[in-house]
Specification:
Layout lengths: L2 E5 L21 H17 L2 E5 L16 E4 L2 E4 L11 H9 L4 E4 L11 E4 L2 E6 L5 H10 L4 E6 L10 E3 L5 E3 L21 E4 L2 E5 L3 H9 L3 E5 L2 H4 L10 E4 L6
Parallel strand pairs: 1-2, 4-5, 7-8, 12-13
Antiparallel strand pairs: 1-14, 3-4, 6-7, 9-10, 11-12
Length: 253
């Protein structure tokens, strides 16, 4: 078992989720629920035990649990989302995290931080300076993770850092150089090819909307798991947004 995957089932109001940088499209809530279930199955089939956060059907963006907590070095840093209407999502995630015996920290005061702006690559943590994450939030995260190198990253035209760039198992960054100024990026064939979830070893999860990128990653020797998340992509979501992976080494008990 690689660890625990925190997930939250989408509710009937998922189509009302916030859309900032793309045109709003109709979202099929029933299809979104089926796609989410398939996403969770893919995690489970690849060694992750799903821990379902309490449903929050009144909160349309609830399934995007990544934005509510950052897990690193045995700590769970509960965020303060930049969109005020998303802040009620945090407490139910906090309740789930407490069961995992992680050291709990919080972003407080005037700080804002969305977990989608946090990309961990070894001992380095890239943090997007975005409309959702401010300098105070970045400073507080750095204080909570003193053993990590925190690297702020300016963003252009995307919601979160991980909307533009993620990392492969060997630490190679994959993403869109038009959105971030990071060196030595592997540029994907499709926009959604910028988003991968590390499942362990050489396995990665990627959206079905990035078939050419998936093929490129397979040529690099990776084992690629594909999932269809089309309804969440209409809400600026990606494969990283829908879970928080808590690796076994991060849990103290």
């Amino acid at each position: 078992m690689s660890g625990i995957a925190l997930v939250r089932t989408p509710g009937p109001r998922v189509a009302e989720g916030i859309v900032t940088n793309i045109e709003r499209e109709p979202v099929d809530a029933e299809l979104a629920a089926r796609q989410h279930a398939a996403y969770v199955r893919a995690l489970e089939e690849n060694g992750w035990r799903a821990e379902h956060v309490e449903r929050a059907d009144e909160l349309p963006d609830g399934p995007f649990v990544e934005d509510t907590v950052v897990v690193c070095a045995g700590r769970a840093v509960l965020t303060r989302p930049g969109a005020p209407e998303r802040r009620p999502e945090v407490e139910s995630v906090a309740a789930a995290v407490r069961k995992l015996d992680l050291e709990i920290r919080r972003i407080e005061g005037e700080g804002t931080l969305d977990g989608g702006d946090v990309l961990q690559v070894g001992s380095r943590v890239y943090v997007g300076r975005s409309a959702r994450t401010n300098d105070e939030g970045i400073a507080q995260l750095a204080a909570h993770l003193p053993e990590r190198e925190i690297v702020p990253v300016e963003l252009r035209g995307v919601l979160h850092l991980k909307s533009a760039v993620t990392a492969l198992p060997d630490g190679t960054l994959i993403g869109d150089p038009a959105c971030v100024d990071l060196q030595n990026l592997l540029v994907p064939e499709e926009e959604s090819g910028s988003h991968v979830v590390l499942l362990g070893g050489e396995r990665v999860l990627i959206a079905a909307s990035a078939p050419a990128t998936a093929a490129t990653l397979e040529r690099r020797g990776l084992e690629v798991v594909r999932v269809d998340i089309s309804e969440f992509e209409k809400l600026e979501g990606c494969v990283t947004c829908l879970s928080v992976l808590v690796r076994s080494r991060d849990v103290r008990s």
